[in-house]
Known about the structure:
There is one protein chain. This protein has one domain (2-68). Helices cover 69% and strands 17% of the residues. The chain contains 2 helices and 2 strands. Strands 1-2 form a two-stranded antiparallel ribbon. A hairpin with a 2-residue loop joins strand 1 (26-31) and strand 2 (34-39). The N and C termini lie far apart (41 Å). Keywords: Cell membrane, Membrane, Transmembrane, Transmembrane helix.
Amino acid sequence: MDTLMLAVKIIITLLVAILFVQNIALVEVRFLTWSARMPLALLLLVIYVLGMVSGKALFQLLSRLRRRRPHH
Protein backbone atom coordinates (compact mmCIF):
# COMPACT_ATOMS: atom_id res chain seq x y z
CA MET A 1 0.00 0.00 0.00
CA ASP A 2 2.90 2.37 0.76
CA THR A 3 4.31 1.80 -2.73
CA LEU A 4 0.93 2.63 -4.29
CA MET A 5 0.63 5.87 -2.28
CA LEU A 6 4.19 6.84 -3.26
CA ALA A 7 3.39 6.21 -6.92
CA VAL A 8 0.22 8.33 -6.70
CA LYS A 9 2.15 11.17 -5.02
CA ILE A 10 4.85 11.05 -7.71
CA ILE A 11 2.27 11.10 -10.51
CA ILE A 12 0.43 14.05 -8.95
CA THR A 13 3.71 15.93 -8.46
CA LEU A 14 4.65 15.33 -12.11
CA LEU A 15 1.24 16.52 -13.30
CA VAL A 16 1.50 19.69 -11.21
CA ALA A 17 5.03 20.32 -12.52
CA ILE A 18 3.79 19.95 -16.11
CA LEU A 19 0.92 22.34 -15.36
CA PHE A 20 3.34 24.95 -14.03
CA VAL A 21 5.85 24.59 -16.89
CA GLN A 22 3.12 24.91 -19.52
CA ASN A 23 1.56 28.00 -17.89
CA ILE A 24 4.41 30.47 -17.55
CA ALA A 25 2.76 33.16 -19.72
CA LEU A 26 2.18 36.49 -18.00
CA VAL A 27 -1.39 37.40 -17.13
CA GLU A 28 -2.80 40.58 -15.65
CA VAL A 29 -4.71 40.29 -12.41
CA ARG A 30 -6.98 43.12 -11.34
CA PHE A 31 -8.71 43.46 -7.99
CA LEU A 32 -10.58 46.70 -7.26
CA THR A 33 -7.92 49.36 -7.94
CA TRP A 34 -4.94 46.99 -7.61
CA SER A 35 -3.36 45.46 -10.69
CA ALA A 36 -0.40 43.11 -11.19
CA ARG A 37 1.20 41.03 -13.94
CA MET A 38 2.44 37.59 -12.99
CA PRO A 39 2.95 34.17 -14.51
CA LEU A 40 -0.25 32.14 -14.65
CA ALA A 41 1.48 29.33 -12.74
CA LEU A 42 2.21 31.69 -9.85
CA LEU A 43 -1.39 32.90 -9.86
CA LEU A 44 -2.59 29.28 -9.68
CA LEU A 45 -0.26 28.64 -6.74
CA VAL A 46 -1.46 31.76 -4.90
CA ILE A 47 -5.12 30.82 -5.43
CA TYR A 48 -4.43 27.27 -4.24
CA VAL A 49 -2.69 28.45 -1.06
CA LEU A 50 -5.43 30.99 -0.32
CA GLY A 51 -8.01 28.23 -0.76
CA MET A 52 -6.15 25.96 1.66
CA VAL A 53 -5.85 28.72 4.27
CA SER A 54 -9.47 29.81 4.00
CA GLY A 55 -10.71 26.20 3.98
CA LYS A 56 -8.75 25.38 7.12
CA ALA A 57 -10.00 28.53 8.86
CA LEU A 58 -13.60 27.70 7.95
CA PHE A 59 -13.19 24.10 9.14
CA GLN A 60 -11.76 25.29 12.49
CA LEU A 61 -14.60 27.80 12.91
CA LEU A 62 -17.22 25.14 12.24
CA SER A 63 -15.49 22.75 14.67
CA ARG A 64 -15.54 25.40 17.42
CA LEU A 65 -19.19 26.16 16.80
CA ARG A 66 -20.09 22.46 17.02
CA ARG A 67 -18.20 22.08 20.32
CA ARG A 68 -20.03 25.08 21.83
CA ARG A 69 -23.47 23.87 20.83
CA PRO A 70 -25.10 21.94 23.69
CA HIS A 71 -26.04 18.39 22.78
CA HIS A 72 -29.76 17.53 22.96
